[in-house]
Design a protein that fits this description.
Largest interface: A-B, 49 and 35 residues
Shape of chain A: globular
Distance between the termini of chain B: 40 Å
Number of domains of chain A: 1
CATH superfamily of chain B: Metal-dependent hydrolases
Radius of gyration of chain A: 21 Å
Radius of gyration of chain B: 20 Å
Strand order of the largest sheet of chain B: 1-7-8-9-10-11-12-13
CATH architecture of chain A: Alpha-Beta Barrel
Helix content of chain B: 25-40%
Number of helices of chain A: 18
Number of domains of chain B: 1
Strand content of chain A: 5-15%
Strand order of the largest sheet of chain A: 1-4-5-6-7-8-9-10
Shape of chain B: globular
CATH class of chain A: Alpha Beta
Number of helices of chain B: 15
Structural class of chain B: alpha/beta
CATH topology of chain A: TIM Barrel
CATH superfamily of chain A: Metal-dependent hydrolases
Order of helices and strands of chain B: EHEEEEEHHEHHEHEHEHHEHHEHEHHH
Oligomer: heterodimer
Number of strands of chain B: 13
CATH architecture of chain B: Alpha-Beta Barrel
Distance between the termini of chain A: 20 Å
Order of helices and strands of chain A: EHEEHHEHHEHEHEHHHHEHHEHHEHHH
Chain lengths: 399, 379
C-alpha cells in the first residue's frame, strides 16, 4: 500500500457492547455498559464512578469547513455545562468510532490512509478507578480483544493500540505479550507506569521495558496517565481540579522521570511515544533539562550516560496535531521524531479537512518534500513497521 | 563584536544583616529575621529557626558559596553592590528580594509583623538605591496581607520611596482571591497610575513558595495560569497602562505556550464565558503587549524572541542566586547573542529594561514598539 497520510494518534469510541460481549461470563453483570440518561442521551455506567461517563465530545458528528468548527459544535451540546440540554446518543455520533466499515469511509473523506487507534481517555479514567482488580483487568482484555477484531477488517489502515492493564507488572507483561503475539496489534499504550503506579517509575518496570525491546515494539503514552474518573462531571463544575489532576501524569512529567530514573540507559533501544502531546514545547524542555542536569548532576542519585536531550533524539517520538511553532522548530526537535496526527474523531480534529490543514502548516513552515513525507506518514510507518510501497523508489523506477 | 552596556533586568539583593533587627519595633526583637554565622556560612533565622542561607554558585568550583555576615554586610552596601556589578561587567541591575526569608515571614501569619517587615525592607531598599540611582533599580516587596495593605504599600513605595517596580507573592487581594477579579483592581489601578511595573515570580494562589527541583525540564512557569487569569479577567482592558514583568522563567516556553493558549481560546468559542475586551486580539496578544520577560541562559528563547516582541525581552544576570554565572554574565550574554545584530543585542542588554523602568531618563516605549511581534499563524 502507498501512504500519504497516517494519523499517528486517532481514537475509537468503545463499541456499545464491547465489554458485555468480551467479558468472562462470571463478571459480565458488572461490566461497563451503556445506559440511557434522563436528558435523552447515553453514557457509560462504570462501577466505582458516580456519574455516567459521557462521550459526545469524543465523536462530534459534524463536518468542519474550517478549523475549530467541530470543537465549537461540541460545545453547543452543553453536556459539559449543565447536562440539561439533550444528551448525545450513540446513533448521534460518527459510526466509524466503533464500526470499521464506516471508519474507512470516514478516513477516505478525510484523505487519511491509515490511523493508529487509541482509546477514549474518559472511559479509561473511570475504568482505572475501579476497585476490583479482576474486573479492571477484564476491561483491558476485553478492549484489546475488540480492538483486534476492529482492525482485522483492514489491517493496513486500522492500526490498533493495545492497552496495558494497570493491575500490576505481571498482568502488564502478560497482556503486552498477548497484544503483540496473539492479537497482532502493532503497539500498546500505557495507562500507568508498567508496575501500576500512577506517580513514579519503579524497578519492576524494567521487566516491561525489557520485553518491549525484546519484541522491538514501541510503547506509547497518550497525553496523561492521570485522567480523573469523573472527568466530565468535574469539567462541568469548572475550577482547576481536572487540570491539576491531569498535570501529574502528563507525558512530559513521565518522560522526565523515566530519563532521570535511567530507564533509557538500561534500555537503550526502547522506543517511547508521546501521543497528543504536540511538539513546540520540546526545544525549551530539553534545553533546560540539559542545563540543569549539567549544573547539578552531582546532587543526583543517578548519573546518566547521556544528556537528557540525547535520549529524546534516540528513544522518543511524539505526535502533533496542529502545532505551527513545533513545525517551525522541527530541526531543534528532530524531523525523524515527529509524527502528524489528526485525533479523529475527537473534537480537536477538523474532519474532513484534517489533511488539508496539516498541509497548510507544513507549507507555512516551508517543509521540503522529504521531510513532509516523513512527518505525514513515513516516520510513523517505519516506527510501527507498517509495510508500504516506497514512493521514492517508485519514482526512481519510473525514471 | 561591539561592546555594549548590560543592565541586568533581574538580580537579587543582599540584605543587610541588621536590616530588620535594627529597624523593626522592639516588640518584635525576638521574632525579627537576623543573620547568624555558622560553620558553613551565614544563615537567616526568624524566631530562632533557620529560614534561608544567602549564597551563590562559586565561580570556580560550581558549588554553593555561603558568605559570612561580615562579607554580606559589605555586599549589602551600595559600594559592595557596585563592586558585584563591576566584577560582572554590568552597568546596573534591577534588584529583587530573595524568596526564602519572605516565606518565613509570611508563615508567621502575624499581619502587623508581616506588613512591618515589608515596610522596613522597602525603606532599606530605597536607601540602597539612593546610593547609586543610575545603577540600581529597586523592586519593592508587596505585603500578602490583603488589598488595603498591598495598595497602600505600593503607593508608598512608588510615591514616597520612588521605587520603580514592585513584586507580588500572592494576588493583591490575598492568596485566596480569584485572579483577575475586580477585588484586586485598586492595586492594579494604583500600579497603572504610578507607572510601576508589577513583577510576578510564583503562583499567586499558593501560600507556600515551592523550590524548583535542581534538575528539571523546561516548561511554562507554574504561574502561567495566573498570567492567563489576568488576561481573561480583563485586567488589562480595565487598566491598559498596567505592565507586568515575568521573572525567572526564561522565554523559550512562550512560543509554544502562546499557540496552545490561543488554540484553547478558539476551541471554546461556542461555550466560553469570557471575552477579551478587544475582539481583534487573542489571549497571546495580551501576553505580548502587557508582559515583559527576563531571560538568562535561554538560547532557544533568544532565538525566538520576535514571537514575544523584541521590546519585551530583557537579559538578566540573576546575580546573587544559584542560577547566576557571576562573574561571567557578560561572557554568557556574548555567547548567546554574538550572532545577533547590534541593535537587537542592545535591546536585550539595556534598552528594554531602561525604557521599562525609566533608567537614566530613557523614554517610554512607543505603541509601535510594544505591539511589534510575530504572532504564530493560527490556522
Amino acid at each position: 500500500m502507498r501512504y500519504k497520510a497516517i494519523s499517528a494518534d486517532s481514537h475509537v469510541n468503545e463499541h456499545p457492547e464491547l465489554f458485555i460481549r468480551h467479558f468472562p461470563a462470571e463478571l459480565r453483570d458488572r461490566a461497563p455498559r451503556l445506559i440511557d440518561l434522563d436528558n435523552g442521551g447515553q453514557g457509560w455506567q462504570i462501577e466505582g464512578t458516580s456519574e455516567p461517563v459521557l462521550f459526545s465530545g469524543s465523536a462530534v458528528h459534524h463536518r468542519a469547513s474550517k478549523r475549530f468548527d467541530r470543537a465549537n459544535y461540541k460545545n453547543r451540546f452543553a453536556e459539559y455545562k449543565d447536562g440539561v440540554t439533550k444528551g448525545v446518543r450513540y446513533e448521534d455520533i460518527l459510526p466509524g468510532s466503533w464500526d470499521p466499515v464506516a471508519r474507512l469511509k470516514e478516513q477516505d473523506e478525510d484523505k487519511v490512509d491509515a490511523e493508529l487507534l487509541y482509546s477514549s481517555p474518559q472511559v479509561w479514567g473511570a475504568v482505572k478507578a475501579m476497585e476490583d482488580r479482576k474486573l479492571k483487568l477484564a476491561c483491558f482484555r476485553a478492549y484489546n480483544d475488540w480492538m483486534a477484531e476492529f482492525c482485522a477488517h483492514n489491517p493496513q489502515r486500522l492500526l490498533g493500540v493495545g492497552l496495558i492493564p494497570v493491575t500490576g507488572i505481571d498482568d502488564a507483561l502478560a497482556e503486552f505479550d498477548r497484544c503483540i503475539n496473539e492479537l497482532k496489534l502493532p503497539t500498546v499504550a500505557l495507562e500507568s507506569y508498567p508496575s501500576g503506579s500512577y506517580t513514579d517509575p519503579s524497578p519492576e518496570d524494567d521487566r516491561f521495558w525489557s520485553l518491549a525491546v525484546e519484541m522491538d515494539v514501541p510503547v506509547g503514552l497518550h497525553f496523561s496517565i492521570k485522567i480523573p474518573a469523573d472527568v466530565t462531571a468535574n469539567v462541568r463544575k469548572g475550577g482547576d481540579d481536572v487540570r491539576k489532576a491531569i498535570a501529574g501524569g502528563l507525558f512530559q512529567v513521565v518522560l522526565q522521570k523515566m530519563i532521570l530514573d535511567g530507564v533509557f540507559d538500561r534500555h537503550p533501544r526502547l522506543q517511547f511515544v508521546g501521543a497528543e502531546v504536540n511538539c513546540g514545547w520540546i526545544p525549551y524542555y530539553f534545553q533546560k533539562f540539559d542545563q540543569t542536569y549539567k549544573a547539578n548532576w552531582r546532587q543526583l542519585d543517578n548519573r546518566l550516560d547521556l544528556l537528557p536531550s540525547e535520549y529524546f533524539k534516540r528513544n522518543v517520538y511524539v505526535t502533533f496535531i496542529i502545532d505551527q511553532v513545533g513545525v517551525n522548530s522541527r530541526y531543534s526537535i528532530g524531523v525523524d521524531r515527529l509524527m502528524w496526527s489528526c485525533d479523529f474523531p475527537h473534537s480537536v480534529s477538523n474532519w474532513p479537512i484534517d489533511v488539508e490543514l496539516a498541509h497548510d502548516q507544513l507549507k507555512i513552515g516551508k517543509v521540503p518534500q522529504d521531510e513532509w513525507e516523513r512527518i505525514m506518514w513515513r516516520n510513523c510507518a517505519d516506527l510501527y513497521k507498517i509495510e508500504y510501497e516506497d514512493s521514492a523508489l517508485q519514482s526512481l523506477k519510473a525514471a | 563584536m561591539t561592546a555594549i552596556d548590560i543592565f541586568s533586568a533581574a538580580s537579587n539583593v543582599t540584605e543587610a544583616p541588621d536590616l530588620w533587627a535594627k529597624k523593626l519595633p522592639q516588640k518584635w526583637s525576638e521574632l525579627s529575621p537576623r543573620l547568624v554565622d555558622g560553620k558553613d556560612g551565614a544563615e537567616w533565622h526568624l524566631g530562632g529557626r533557620p529560614c534561608g542561607a544567602p549564597g551563590f554558585r562559586h565561580p570556580v568550583n560550581g558549588g554553593r558559596y555561603r558568605p559570612t555576615s561580615a562579607e554580606l554586610s559589605w555586599l549589602a552596601s551600595a559600594e559592595g553592590r557596585l563592586w558585584l556589578q563591576s566584577r560582572d561587567d554590568m552597568v546596573g541591575e534591577v534588584l529583587y528580594p530573595n524568596r526564602e526569608i519572605w516565606s518565613a515571614i509570611a508563615a508567621t501569619e502575624d499581619r502587623d509583623f508581616i506588613v512591618a517587615c515589608h515596610q522596613v525592607y522597602n525603606d532599606w531598599l530605597a536607601e540602597l538605591v539612593s546610593g547609586a540611582p543610575e545603577r540600581i533599580v529597586g523592586i519593592a516587596k508587596i505585603p500578602p496581607t490583603g488589598i488595603k495593605d498591598a495598595t497602600e504599600e505600593l503607593k508608598r513605595a512608588g510615591e514616597k520611596l520612588k521605587l520603580k517596580g514592585a513584586i507580588l507573592d500572592v494576588w493583591p487581594a490575598g492568596v485566596e482571591a480569584e485572579g483577575g477579579l475586580p477585588e484586586s483592581d485598586p492595586f492594579w489601578e494604583c500600579a497603572a497610575a504610578l507607572g510601576v511595573p508589577i513583577s510576578i515570580h510564583r503562583p499567586l494562589s499558593a501560600l507556600k513558595d515551592e523550590e524548583p527541583p535542581l534538575v528539571a525540564a523546561g516548561g511554562p512557569p507554574a504561574f502561567s495560569y495566573d498570567m492567563n487569569a489576568l488576561v481573561y479577567g480583563n485586567v488589562f482592558d480595565r487598566f491598559p497602562s498596567l505592565r507586568v514583568v515575568v521573572k525567572d522563567t526564561g522565554v523559550g516556553w512562550a512560543p509554544s505556550g502562546f499557540e496552545a493558549l490561543d488554540e484553547t481560546y478558539m476551541r471554546m468559542q461556542g461555550s466560553r464565558t469570557i471575552e477579551l475586551g478587544n475582539p481583534d486580539l487573542l489571549p497571546s496578544d495580551y501576553l505580548r503587549r502587557f508582559f515583559w520577560f527576563t531571560v538568562q541562559d535561554d538560547s532557544f528563547g533568544i532565538s525566538t524572541r520576535k514571537v514575544l516582541g523584541k521590546a519585551h525581552v530583557m537579559y538578566a544576570s540573576f546575580a546573587n542566586t544559584f542560577a547566576s554565572v557571576w562573574p561571567n554574565s557578560r561572557q554568557l550574554f556574548e555567547q548567546l547573542t554574538g550572532e545577533l545584530p547590534n541593535a537587537d543585542r542592545e535591546d536585550l542588554a539595556s534598552n528594554v529594561v531602561s525604557k521599562l523602568y525609566g533608567v537614566n531618563s530613557a523614554t517610554d516605549f512607543s505603541t509601535q514598539e510594544i505591539n511589534d511581534y510575530e504572532r504564530h499563524v493560527l490556522l
